[in-house]
Structures are given as structure tokens and as C-alpha cells.
């Protein structure tokens, strides 16, 4: 029997596709502290079409240089087909759609002018249909989005807070050959390596996860786990952010930086840097073998328990952060872990080449202790928020401190280089 099938059938449909559910809230708390000594810069709102029209001669060079970097880093990545490149624009070309195709993202992404209201404020409500193409809106129905207009002045912090959530709205949906989309057939990403290609939100999973430290035998039998793309996205959007700043478009400088930060923050989540924490390779293979002879319970239990803890920490984090911002409970241990950073606590973001070591290895190493601590809580699913001294807050405080640390380092680098 093909040994690869053993691992594929075990993992392909068992990996959850979400990471931190509340990027905007987390980033709000980080910036509340990180920029407390200075007022956030004010920037002029600009449509994506305007930015692309003014800088169309520089876009393709930026994307090509980014792709060359990614090709050396990701052996599974294919080159962008010539017909997709932004250089092929004509007078009749839809600049925004061609730009998306050159990036190889969802060509239907809206890129509306908006802010996510964190905390809530008054303004003209932006309907969700103008923000996302998702059929299942999920927790977006709980959020408030306010329309902006071109030329309006807005704080850079509000741009960043909103942008860090945006890639989850549909940017990476339906990009694989088996996702039943036109672009999936031409983008060159092949079939979806893991996650369920028939499930809308799951199709983005390989762009928001990075598995670099699994045992050799897992990679040997399940090489598809190497086919992840967050580094591509981070490099693309960081490069575009630098271009935007250099050419005098600070709004898009911050917005692209926020998009890049989304993927960095995802990789600080242990369940996005480790396939099945605390489940050794021999057990993964063993439970699959016995399931193939009719004893399904061990495999079902293993997947249910691990994915359940993943879901628990995400659900709890989402509602906790919303509540802490609403009540302004700045003394809560999770808030202090995110916001209390001295000079000695900071690290330097040197380059994307160090992402795997500085971000992913740290998250992978946190996987086993985090999973064990969550299991010991004996909480099967999110039902309510607990008192401040509950141990779930100790777990979240540790994880989100790492998210805060790497977010700050990236923002410092962006500010330093621009």
C-alpha cells in the first residue's frame, strides 16, 4: 500500500483553517501601547485603483523581485504565467483585477475603503457585501465596518488595525485547481495540499499555515505539508508596502503592511505551525492503520481532541478580546501581556529569511505545552468567559505576548525603513 495515503487520509481533512479570530482587536491593543509615546501618523485615504494607476510602471518589477525571492525559498512554488502579470495591462484593463491576478489572490476581493470600528464608533456603516465575497460570514456579522472616502484623512493605526484582519475576508479563497474556480486552473498552485477543497473557508488554509519542524518521517510520507505559502504573501505585501511608502502613498504603505502582518500573526499560533501537537508520528500512522481495518474510534478521537482544543483557544480569544476592549479592562492579565513591553522586551525584525526561526520555531515549540495545558482544563468548547485568574488566561497571555512581540518588531522595521 502507498504509505503516503496513510498520512494523507489522516491529515488532509483534519487541519482547521482558522488562526487568531480577532486580528483587529489584538492589533488595536498592541498599537495602543506601541504608539503611546507618539500620535499615530495621519494618512490620506486612497483607492487601490488610484494607487495602481499612479505606480503601474513599478508594480510588476516589485512583484517579480518578490517572486524571485519566494522561488528560492519555496521549491514547490511555480512561476506566475506571463498572461497574469501586471505588465500586460492595456487601456481597457481592469487595473485592480489584473493586480490581483498578478499577485495570484482572489480576483474578486473588494479592497473597499473602510475601517473596522475597534472600539466601536459612529459613522456610515459599510455593508458586508461590499467587504467580502464569503458566503458564510461567520464572526464578521459581529463587527462594525465604517465606510471611508478617497481623500479623507485617517490615522495609520486605524488602517493597520483594519488591514490585519482583511486577508481572512476572502483574499486566499479558491486558488487551487480543485476549488472549482477559474483562477485555480491557471494560478499554478496545483491541487489543494490539505484542508477540505470543498469547504469555502478551508481553501485558504495553505496560505495561512507553515509547517517547518515536523519529524522527518512525516515530511517523507506527507510531502504535501511543505506546500504552504504564508512566506510568499508576507514578502509580496511587505515589498508592496515599501513601494507605496517610497512613492508617497502612506495609506497603502500601512494597509499592505497590515496584510503582511496578518500572516505573521497567524504563524505565532501554535496550531498553525504544528500539524498535530503531542501526537507523535508513530501514533499518527498507527491509528490510521487500525482505522483501515475497521477500528475508526482512535483516529476520530485524536482528530476531534486536537481540533477541539484548537477551536477552543480561537473561540475564547475572540470573545475575550472583544470584551476586554468593550469594558476597557486594561489590567486583565491577557491585556497586560500584550501591552506591557519595555525596551528590553523588544526584538529586531531583521528580514523575512528569519521568519521560520524567530516566529515559526517559537510557535512550534509552544505547541506541545499549550495543547497539554488546554487538555488539562477539561473544557470541551467555548461557553463563557472565565474569571481573571482562570488558567486559560495564562495560556492565552503567553501566546499573545509572542504575537505582540513579533508584530512590534515588524512595525519597527517598517517605520525604520520608511
TrEMBL record:
Give the signal peptide as a residue range, or say none if absent: 1-19
What keywords does the record list, in alphabetical order?
Answer: Signal
Query: GO terms for molecular function, please?
Result: hydrolase activity, acting on ester bonds
UniProt protein name = Phospholipase
Query: What InterPro entries does the entry give?
Result: PLipase_C/P1_nuclease_dom_sf (IPR008947)
Highest rank taxon of the organism: Bacteria
Amino acid at each position: 500500500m502507498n504509505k503516503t495515503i496513510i498520512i494523507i487520509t489522516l491529515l488532509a481533512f483534519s487541519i482547521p483553517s482558522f488562526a487568531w479570530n480577532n486580528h483587529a482587536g489584538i492589533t488595536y491593543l498592541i498599537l495602543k501601547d506601541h504608539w503611546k509615546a507618539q500620535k499615530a501618523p495621519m494618512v490620506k485615504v486612497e483607492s487601490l485603483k488610484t494607487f495602481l494607476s499612479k505606480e503601474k510602471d513599478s508594480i510588476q518589477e516589485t512583484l517579480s523581485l518578490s517572486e524571485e525571492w519566494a522561488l528560492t525559498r519555496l521549491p514547490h512554488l511555480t512561476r506566475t504565467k506571463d498572461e497574469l502579470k501586471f505588465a500586460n495591462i492595456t487601456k481597457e484593463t481592469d487595473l485592480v483585477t489584473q493586480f490581483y491576478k498578478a499577485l495570484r489572490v482572489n480576483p474578486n476581493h473588494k479592497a473597499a475603503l473602510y475601517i473596522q470600528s475597534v472600539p466601536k464608533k459612529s459613522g456610515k456603516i459599510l455593508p458586508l457585501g461590499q467587504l467580502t465575497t464569503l458566503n458564510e460570514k461567520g464572526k464578521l456579522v459581529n463587527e462594525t465596518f465604517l465606510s471611508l472616502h478617497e481623500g479623507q484623512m485617517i490615522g495609520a493605526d486605524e488602517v493597520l488595525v483594519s488591514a490585519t484582519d482583511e486577508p481572512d475576508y476572502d483574499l486566499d479563497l479558491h486558488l487551487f485547481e480543485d476549488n472549482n474556480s477559474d483562477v485555480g486552473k491557471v494560478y499554478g498552485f496545483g491541487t489543494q495540499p490539505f484542508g477540505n477543497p470543498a469547504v469555502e473557508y478551508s481553501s485558504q488554509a495553505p496560505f495561512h499555515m507553515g509547517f517547518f519542524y515536523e519529524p522527518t518521517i512525516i515530511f517523507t510520507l506527507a510531502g504535501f505539508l511543505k506546500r504552504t505559502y504564508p512566506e510568499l504573501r508576507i514578502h509580496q505585501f511587505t515589498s508592496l508596502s515599501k513601494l507605496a511608502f517610497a512613492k508617497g502613498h502612506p495609506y497603502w504603505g500601512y494597509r499592505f503592511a497590515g496584510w503582511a502582518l496578518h500572516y505573521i500573526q497567524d504563524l505565532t499560533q501554535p496550531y498553525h505551525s504544528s500539524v498535530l501537537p503531542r501526537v507523535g508520528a508513530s501514533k499518527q500512522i498507527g491509528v490510521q492503520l487500525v482505522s483501515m481495518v475497521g477500528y475508526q474510534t482512535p483516529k476520530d478521537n485524536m482528530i476531534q481532541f486536537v481540533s477541539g482544543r484548537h477551536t477552543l483557544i480561537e473561540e475564547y480569544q475572540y470573545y475575550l478580546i472583544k470584551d476586554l476592549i468593550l469594558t476597557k479592562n486594561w489590567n486583565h492579565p491577557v491585556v497586560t501581556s500584550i501591552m506591557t513591553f519595555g525596551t528590553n522586551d523588544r526584538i529586531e525584525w531583521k528580514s523575512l529569511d528569519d521568519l521560520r526561526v524567530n516566529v515559526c520555531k517559537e510557535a512550534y515549540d509552544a505547541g506541545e505545552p499549550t495543547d497539554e495545558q488546554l487538555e488539562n482544563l477539561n473544557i470541551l468548547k467555548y461557553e463563557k468567559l472565565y474569571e481573571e485568574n482562570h488558567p486559560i488566561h495564562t495560556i492565552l497571555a503567553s501566546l499573545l505576548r509572542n504575537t505582540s512581540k513579533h508584530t512590534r518588531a515588524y512595525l519597527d522595521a517598517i517605520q525604520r525603513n520608511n
